[in-house]
Design brief:
The complex is a heterodimer of chains A (726) and B (161). Chain A is an alpha+beta fold. Chain A folds into 4 domains: 5-78, Roll (Ubiquitin-like (UB roll)); 81-306, Alpha Horseshoe (Leucine-rich Repeat Variant), CATH 1.25.10; 308-334 and 341-517, no CATH class; 538-681, PH-domain like (Roll), CATH 2.30.29. Chain A has 29 helices and 11 strands. Chain A has helices at residues 30-40, 81-91, 97-110, 114-122, 125-146, 148-167, 178-189, 195-211, 213-222, 225-232, 237-253, 256-268, 271-280, 288-303, 306-309, 318-332, 344-357, 377-389, 391-402, 412-426, 450-468, 476-492, 498-507, 510-524, 530-557, 622-625, 634-637, 658-671, 679-696, and strands at 7-13, 20-25, 49-53, 73-79, 559-562, 573-578, 584-590, 605-608, 612-617, 640-645, 649-654. In chain A, the strands form 3 sheets. In chain A, strands 2-1-4-3 form a 4-stranded mixed sheet. In chain A, strands 5-6-7-8 form a 4-stranded antiparallel sheet. In chain A, a hairpin with a 3-residue loop joins strand 10 and strand 11. Chain A is flat. Chain B is of the alpha+beta class and 161 residues long. Chain B folds into 2 domains: 6-67, Roll (SH3 type barrels); 74-155. Chain B is 43% helix and 20% strand. Chain B has helices at 74-91, 94-99, 105-128, 133-154; strands at residues 5-6, 12-15, 34-41, 44-49, 52-60, 64-67. In chain B, strands 1, 2, 3, 4, 5 and 6 form a 6-stranded antiparallel sheet that branches. The chains are: A alpha+beta (726), B alpha+beta (161). At the A-B interface, helix 22, helix 24, helix 25 and helix 29 of A face strand 1, strand 3, strand 5, helix 1 and helix 3 of B.
């Protein structure tokens, strides 16, 4: 019988006493229970006590969390959170360094518990800690030289306690003074700082920046990227993670106008290559927290593209139009201003012809193509980058497609614009980083212009896929769909470098994508879902019945068996078949293997089905137990079966082959109303069932089968149809 | 008391959950069935099975996944025909097989089966809508010729089906 729901059985410890087993009534107030426990050990003042879980988490039991106590838990009677807070508040102000250190250690530990944290904060503990950080350290500055290790510990426990207390989110970050921030920043800026202190300081800075716009400004004034970067060059991944987290926080909170500036500084300080060599390419494997921070940095970096992505081209702007001229110049190697090449009209038509070759939608004024946002000017930036930095590839693509006249050309302009838009979608440009994502790509840290390079690789892929698909302009979206799939698949493998990404794409040709799709379709059949299982269950007996009919029909046709004799093998035969009404087995000897149907009168013997008691197979058959038969090889053993009938008589068979053996044992089992179990039945069943299912579910492709039964609505209120079909 | 109305957009669908009807008005459906829909009322549809107009009745809209296009029938009928042949070959008796002039029943099963898998795969490709138009045309031709070949094969010499 289960114990009553409101009672939990626990053990309670009290230092120096024998633990007590107790049943806690969850309906009673906690204070009453504590009082009871205290009285048990004759302790007075039960208000000063509390219960704690006796495991490393050590949390206090409160009215709120008491329902989490499980049967068999071990609890500990201890001083109440309030009392502990008061004591620690006092002890951390002790003048003895040792006592103080010990107290701070305890405080750091206790602060993880929210109940304690609340009490300590109520005593204004936070400001006590900040005061200690602000002023206290100076007092020990002189001591520092003598007692350096001690000072480091002291500070690190102070900061740990602070971080833990703040983590509960009880106190707002807005309350901190500039002096405090300066102090914390100074720990970060100082080289050769105690690791624990550095880590806590970085954590505090990150929280400050993230939690208060006001503090962001103050922190941003106190520390510079240049001061943070050296921390990345160490080998401690925790410190590196916290450092990148601070950079991310500063990046995230920077007002828009400052963000580009900051990106500029980051580039100047070579943040990317430092991260690449000291973090991504370091021998230490990257942990989840680091992966998240790198992901955030990646997202924030790509978000810088948003501005260009959302900027429309201004057709009147000469500088912007010059970019288009430049694209034309590089592709066709023509002078920008062919002074002596005839009339304006002629020049115009020449431009139009070239713009058509470049694959713009609007041949007359390509600037119009870039007025769509996204991708806006970002597409033009990409095209120019491609033309300048991968000139050969650019010229090849443009010329290759402009010389085709068969509608199979891949328009460079249009595809660049669509591709840029698609890449922005893939990278989610403009979206804030998500909380628990670790999806960073090492290859984006291998190049300062990784987005542009990403584009250059992808536009060449698009051109290749276009050719592989033998696409025409009406297939544009289909090609884009395939290209997206190719990129997504290559990205999921997290290539280490852009070259690796490129070679992954090489392997993911259009035919390969088709193959992958096909195999996914084959494996997609979710035969586990309920309606499909139901359908299988329903079809199975129908097919089984079909197989049974076949076996019985085969028995009615009959089979010629070889006779067994203990003497030398002679070709003697006998024949057996089932009567059409399935009631009698007719059999008789034959002189030779029959050609065509065996006449009825040659089968004199009769065995009524009703007299059959059992069918025996294999080595249990009597004719396999005979002396001579033991010498029979294994093959024969697998073909032998015996009908056991009325008054312990046998009819022994050796089937001509495995197939015939299966047919007969199945048929006989069916006659006896037993299950047909031969391999032949199994394979027939598999073949037919899988084909039938596949056929029936053909139109369900890409349709999600619900997990729970869909609700069946109330019966319609009437059946007065609009049309009467009958 | 909402009246039944004729559907305009909801015309075809695939059944995604088995529905066992109660009473003669209901149309029992099995997952994978395709239905033609004519009228709608209070979360119920009235219609008939795409493969058999005679089987008609009302069924809950919630068990149907609507499709925009008419579900391609031609290929499906062929596949069903081939399946019937596979079924025949799997379960036919020696005499029937001899009548087909065919001693290699299983071999034939494998061949027709492969043909069926191929056709199913192509059907999926054609219906997926991701094939470029050139390839679409080619594949369609290939399928048609395969079906012709298959039909000849299925109704091979001496075979009664």
């Amino acid at each position: 019988m289960p114990p009553p729901a409101d009672i939990v059985k626990v053990a309670i410890e009290w230092p120096g006493a024998f633990p007590k087993l107790m049943e806690i009534d969850q309906k009673k107030p906690l204070s009453a229970i504590i009082k009871e426990v205290c009285e048990g050990w004759s302790l007075g003042n039960h208000e000063n006590f509390a219960l704690q879980i006796a495991d490393p988490t050590n949390f206090y039991i409160t009215e709120k969390n008491r329902n989490d106590i499980k049967n068999g838990s071990i609890l500990r009677l201890t001083t109440s959170p309030y009392q502990t807070a008061v004591q620690l508040h006092e002890r951390i102000q002790s003048s003895s360094m040792d006592a103080k250190l010990e107290a701070l250690k305890d405080l750091a530990n206790a602060s993880r518990d929210i109940t304690f944290a609340q009490e300590f904060i109520n005593l204004d503990g936070i400001s006590l800690l900040t005061q200690m950080v602000e002023s206290g350290t100076e007092r020990y500055q002189k001591l520092q030289k003598i007692m350096k290790p001690c000072f480091g510990d002291l500070l690190s426990f102070t900061l740990t306690a602070f971080v833990e207390l703040m983590d509960h989110g009880i106190v707002s970050w807005d309350t901190f003074s500039v002096a405090f921030i300066k102090k914390i920043a100074s720990y970060v800026n100082k080289s050769a700082m105690d690791t624990a202190v550095l880590q806590r300081s970085l954590a505090i800075l990150e929280s400050m920046v993230l939690n208060s716009q006001d503090l962001y400004h103050k922190v941003a004034q106190e520390i510079t990227i240049g001061q943070l970067i050296p921390h990345l060059q160490g080998t401690d991944q925790d410190i590196q993670t916290y450092t990148i987290a601070v950079i991310n926080a500063l990046f995230l909170k920077a007002p828009e106008e400052k963000r580009q500036e900051m990106a500029h500084i980051l580039a100047q300080k070579q943040l990317r290559s430092i991260i690449l060599s000291n973090v991504i390419r370091s021998p230490t494997p990257i942990n989840d927290e680091m992966a998240h921070q790198l992901y955030v940095l990646q997202v924030l970096t790509f978000n810088l593209l948003e501005d260009r992505m959302m900027t429309k081209m201004d057709p009147q702007d000469q500088a912007q139009r010059d970019i288009i001229f430049e694209l034309r110049r590089i592709a066709f190697d023509v002078e920008c201003e062919p002074n002596n090449s005839g009339s304006i009209e002629k020049r115009k038509s020449m431009y139009t012809r070239d713009y058509k070759k470049l694959g713009f939608i609007n041949h007359v004024n390509p600037a119009v193509d870039f007025t769509q946002i996204p991708p806006g000017m970002l597409a033009l930036d990409n095209m120019l980058y491609f033309a300048r930095h991968h000139q050969d590839a650019y010229i090849r693509i443009v010329l290759e497609n402009s010389s085709r006249e068969d509608k199979h050309e891949c328009p460079f302009g249009r595809s660049s614009i669509e591709l840029t838009k698609m890449l922005c979608e893939i990278l989610k440009v403009g979206e804030l980083p998500s909380e628990n994502c670790h999806d960073f790509h090492p290859m984006f840290f291998t190049h300062d212009r990784s987005f542009e390079e990403f584009f250059c690789i992808s536009i060449q892929l698009l051109n290749k896929t276009w050719k592989e698909m033998r696409a025409t302009s009406e297939d544009f979206n289909k090609v884009m769909q395939v290209v997206r799939e190719q990129i997504m698949r290559a990205l999921t493998l997290k290539p280490n470098s852009l070259d690796q990404f490129k070679s992954r794409l090489q392997n993911l040709s259009y035919t390969e994508i088709l193959k992958i799709r096909q195999s996914e379709r084959m494996n997609q059949e979710d035969f586990q879902s309920r309606p499909i299982l139901e359908l299988r269950e329903k079809i199975q007996p129908e097919i089984m019945e079909l197989i049974k009919q076949q076996r019985l029909n085969r028995l009615c046709e009959g089979t010629c068996f070889r006779k067994i004799s203990s003497r030398r093998r002679q070709d003697k035969f006998w024949y057996c078949r089932l009567s059409p009404n399935h009631k009698v087995l007719h059999y008789g000897d034959l002189e030779e293997s029959p050609q065509g149907e065996v006449p009825h009168d040659s089968l004199q013997e009769k065995l009524p089905v009703a007299e059959i008691k059992a069918v025996i197979t294999g080595k249990d058959c009597p004719h396999m137990k005979e002396k001579g038969a033991l010498k029979q090889n294994k093959e024969v053993l697998e073909l032998a079966f015996t009908i056991l009938y009325e008054s312990d008589e046998y009819l022994n068979f050796i089937a001509p082959d495995k197939h015939e053996y299966c047919v007969w044992t199945d048929g006989l089992n069916a006659l006896l109303g037993k299950e047909m179990t031969s391999d032949y039945t199994k394979s027939d069943m598999d073949t037919l069932l899988s084909m039938e299912m596949k056929l029936r579910l053909l139109d369900l492709e890409n349709i999600q089968i619900p997990e729970a039964p869909p609700p069946i609505p109330k019966e319609p209120s009437n059946y007065d149809f609009v049309y009467d079909c009958n | 008391m909402a009246p039944w109305t004729r559907t305009t957009t909801e015309r075809y669908g695939v059944v995604k959950w088995n529905f066992v009807g109660k009473g003669e008005k209901h149309l029992s459906l099995e997952v994978g069935d395709t239905v033609c829909i004519q009228e709608v009322c209070d979360g119920w549809y009235r219609g008939h099975l795409a493969r058999n107009k005679a089987q008609q009745g009302v069924f809950p809209a919630s068990v149907v996944h609507l499709k925009e296009v008419i579900i391609e029938k031609q290929g499906l009928i062929c596949l069903q025909k081939f399946y019937a042949f596979v079924k025949f070959l799997c379960v036919c008796t020696t005499t029937e097989m001899r009548r087909c002039g065919e001693a290699y029943g299983m071999l034939r099963v494998k061949q027709v089966q492969r043909l069926m898998w191929e056709l199913m795969e192509w059907r999926s490709q054609l219906l997926s809508g991701t094939l470029p138009s050139d390839e679409f045309k080619e594949l369609k031709q290939k399928v048609t010729s395969k079906i012709d070949y298959g039909n000849k094969y299925v109704s091979g010499p001496g075979c009664s089906r």
